[in-house]
Structures are given as C-alpha cells and as structure tokens.
Amino acid sequence: MTKSEKINLIGLDNVSLTELVAKWGHKPFRAKQLINWIHQKGKSDFSNMTNLANDFRSHLTEYSVIATPKVITKQVSSDGTIKWLFDVQNNNAIETVYIPEDDRGTLCISSQAGCTVACRFCSTGHQGFNRNLSTSEIIGQVWWARDEIKKSLNTDSGFEAEDDRVITNVVFMGMGEPLLNYDQVLPAIKLLIDQNAYGLSKRRVTVSTSGVIPFMDKLSQDCPVALAVSLHAPNDELRDQLIPLNKKYPLRELMDACNRYIDFAPRDFITFEYIMLDGVNDTDAHAKQLIDICREVKSKVNLIPFNPFPESGLRRSSHERVRAFSAILNGAGIVATTRKTRGDDIDAACGQLAGDIKDKSKISELMRKRKSIPIKKETL
Ligand code: SAH
Ligand code: SF4
Asked: Where does [4Fe-4S] cluster bind (predicted)?
C-alpha cells in the first residue's frame, strides 16, 4: 500500500476498525482505544495516543490518517448559529450548522453533495446531485465542529471545557437524503451513539427523511434512532407535486412504514415535519387532513416556516396562518410546535443550505423548468 492510499480511520465504526486492527495483527481492544482517542478525545495525531505501543503508532502513521473535510468558510450568525462550508473535492462543497440553545447544542449535518429527491421547496433540491458523502465526510463534520466549538469556549472562558457536551443532538437535516446514502450514513450513526465515541443516546440522533420506505425499515432493524419524516402535504396529489418521491412511496405506504418504525424507535412517536407554504398547504382543510394522518400514526408535528430562496417561487405562510393552523391541530389533541428560524442572516436555516454542487444529474436544469409550473391549487 502506498502512502497516498492511507486509510482514513475517522470513518470506521467499531466493527470495521476492529476488523482492520485484527488484519494488522493487533488485539481487538486497540480499536476501542483508537475510537476513544479519535472521537471522544478529539485527537488526530497518533503521537498523542499515549496508551498505544510505539510500534503500533508507527504502523498507524505509515498506513493511516485521521482526516476531516477541509473548511472553506465559517460564518457566525447574530443569534450564535454557526455555519461551516466544507470542501468535498472536485469543486463540491457541503454545509454544516450548529444551533446553540440554553439547554442543548444541535448539529445539523449533510449526508450527500446535493440531493436527487428534488423537492420543490428546497434549495439543495434545486441544485441537483453530485455524489454520496463517505462516512469520513459525514462524521468528519461532527469531529470538526465539536473541536472548533470546544476551542472557542476555552478561549472565551479561559478554562478548558472538559466535556464534549457542546453537541448534545445531531440531526441529519443538512444537505441530502440520508436514507439514500444508507451504507455510509449507518456507520456514522453507530459512531454517534458509541459510548466510546460521541456517546449520544438514540433519542438525540435524528434521521430526517423524505420517506424512503425500504430504508426506514432497514434502519428500524439496524439502529433505530429518532425519526423525522418530511411530510409537507396531507394528500398524495399535493405531496406528489412537492416531493416527487411520493409517487414511488405514497402516503398510505409511508404511514404504514411509520407505524412499523415506531415499534423499534427510541421515542414512541414520529416527528412529522411540515413546511408552511402560503396558499399551497396551509389552509384549514389541509390541517383537517393532517389530523386524520396524525390519528393513524403516533406523531408530533413540527411546523416549519418556509425559508425562501430566489428560485423557489414559493412564499412563507403568515404568522397568523401558522398560528391558526397550529390551533386546529392542537384543538384535535395533536401536539404541534412551530420551529424557530435560526441563522437567517447567514442563510443557515433549514432548506437554505446550498453549498456548491456540480450537478452530475439533470436535476438542476429540470428544476429551473419546473419553477414555471404553478402548483395546482385544487389539491384537497
Ligand atoms: N432529505 C431529508 C433531510 C434534509 S432536509 C428530508 O427531506 O427530510 C431537512 C429538513 O429541511 C426537511 O424537513 C426539509 O423538508 C426541510 N426544508 C427543506 N427546504 C426547506 C425550506 N426552504 N424551508 C424550510 N425547511 C426546508
Ligand atoms: Fe433532498 Fe430533503 Fe431537500 Fe427534499 S428536502 S430535496 S429530500 S434535502
């Protein structure tokens, strides 16, 4: 193996790293030690890994690296939200967002360079698709963000932040459809919940999906973390127009898949995400249809103010409309919360993440054409 083919250890979960270490003729517990150094202690230099024998450290240096994608820019919003733009090669860039709140710190990570699902209301969807991210690129966002946040805390407060709890929650709500990159996303999830790595509980890791049913089922068996389903429309006719994937996995099947997932989920409900689009999906009649769905699937609804971007041709529902919509749901006993928009001033809000994608598909071209097709209003 040449030096240019060094293995990046950051993307290996416990099973894969144990296999590799065994292949190198070392004991399985060395994998645990390595995971601990890399992910819990945040080290990337083998010479710091003091409980590893010298010959093992030399071997590691010769054959492996610990590398995250490189940061291109970092922006900090007036509300404390941080957005990083990472280089993922060949002129593609992805985005990661940190949202600090009083009682938690949420990191929103990307799983693909672009997205193939092409949702009408999503900035990433309008860009088309380049490729899946590797596990190293996915978990590398978490490694890098935590390292930077910890360092900035140390500088600001003058003492060394002992704990890694600056990131308490990780959500796959950045660029891409995580369940269409399942093989690379799963080891990243495993590292997030590994006690030796990031040690998050399954409730604090959320996969958000536009509804890729076969992989919802697979996740429920392999590693059932919290699930958010991007619903955005309460009937197939409208959902087909907003999320083209609905034609393949329509609502009835999606609801059944949600009910199957709940049996394994760390929480006994699914979160339904519902972007409020002025005059499109936000009428009282839509709210009533949504109630019917929520009566069939144990769920909480997260109403999301639409974050506009120039090519969308869509508008955000007014505060009054969101309140009225929410009140109808609440009146029927359904828990509905409205998401606070964060990081507006740096375009870090949901659906505004655009990075820089060299579209290999025809999606961006198609989306430009589709923009001129109005959404049919008789979708009730
Ligand atoms: N592909 C996955 C996860 C990434 S999108 C999914 O679709 O669920 C993460 C969330 O951002 C989804 O709920 C998505 O619908 C929402 N979103 C996309 N575009 C948005 C926009 N313009 N304004 C507000 N939320 C948006
Ligand atoms: Fe892809 Fe999610 Fe955006 Fe739809 S909302 S285009 S699935 S990233």
From this structure: 115, 119, 122
pLDDT of 159 > 50? The answer is no
Residues 57 and 74 in one domain: no
Out of 112, 230, 314, 353, give the residue to mutate to test ligand 2, the one with the largest number of ligand atoms within 8 Å of its CB: 230
Determine the atom of ligand 1 nearest the C-alpha atom of 174. 4
Cβ–ligand 2 contact at 122 (below 6 Å): yes
Number of domains in the chain: 2
Q: Do the bridges between strand 112-114 and strand 82-87 make them parallel or antiparallel, or are there none, so unpaired?
A: unpaired
pLDDT of 369: 72
Residues 274-313 pLDDT 10s: 999 999 999 999 999 999 999 999 999 999 999 988 888 9
Structural domain contains residue 376: no
Q: Which ligand is nearest to the CA of 121?
A: 1
pTM for the full model? 0.94
- Active-site residue list: 95, 350
Asked whether 127 lines ligand 2 (CB < 6 A), one says no
